Amino acid sequence: MLITVLAGGIGGSRFIRGLQRAVESAADPSTITVVGNTGDDIWIHGLRVCPDLDTVMYTLGGGISAERGWGREDETFTVRDELADYGVEPTWFGLGDRDIATHLIRTQSLNAGYTLTQVTEALCQRWQPGVTLLPMSDDRAETHVIVDDPAGATAADGTPLRRALHFQEWWIRYRAELPAHEFVLVGVDTATPARGVLDAISDADLVIFPPSNPVVSIGTILQVPGVADAVRSTSAPVVGVSPIVGGAPVRGMADACLRAIDVETSAAGVALHYGARARGGLLDAWIIDTADAASASEIEASGISCVIAATMMTDLDASADLARVCLDAGRGVSSSDRA
Ligand code: GDP
Ligand code: CA
Fold it and tell me: Within the chain, which residues score under 70 in pLDDT?
């Protein structure tokens, strides 16, 4: 069985660990391909940093900080502190000393002409994540956020001037508290999916949207030309898990992202945003938390098959149980239900 997962960072990688556990104990062997979000990627002090790819790689490879959920275990931040003492911006990005080794290798290899796909594969030689980890694209497609000028600058008539911030600056430095007018994926128009991405979706037996941010993780991957069409037209069932539980994100500020694109922060809101494949959308089935059971009928009415389950990934067993629900939901979607 070929399973393809479109993933962001923490939510995506926790789910994939559970999926690995779930398929380990299944009767037929499975191969997992992860299409990772690179819209969060950023140059920091001359280093190319790919936060979501690294979160997946470290989590599946056993190197993630369990406490933080991102970056390396046993991390120190000496280089970051030294840079701050020099007064060099940015100081808000958590660049860890161990983590810097990854970014040094990536930057050097990219400068030598290797693609991000090749560099990611090389880094995974060490971490052995047990999945094929593909960046969504080798091209730069970076999420920027349009906000009112944080310093309060206005035009002559008093209207606030708008600024574009890199996603990381908006998310980390401003904790997504500056209202976002719009997200712009800079470069996406001319980006192409990385080699293997479209085939991984078209040839899959199951496509999963894990509980990743629907706007700046999965939404970004879906904007790469050809990816959404591949999801719409694959013969595999497409099953998603709601990252919104009880009307709020489980972790992070997905509500601030959803607000910017006028989508309600609810399990049903996100489902309807993706839409039913039978009606030109992306989903066959959507897993919602028991806390949101009341939304099931609205989701079903939109043409998406709705499954109610425990979706809090409190530990590996819980993640594996959630992954089994996805596998079952995929089996439950008969081909006649699909477009
Ligand atoms: P990021 O790139 O590190 O922000 O991670 P992702 O985009 O992969 O996932 C972030 C989303 O995962 C957030 O919107 C969270 O609400 C969601 N999330 C995190 N943990 C859980 C969980 O245990 N259960 C569910 N249902 N969603 C979760
Ligand atoms: Ca991310």
Answer: 334-339
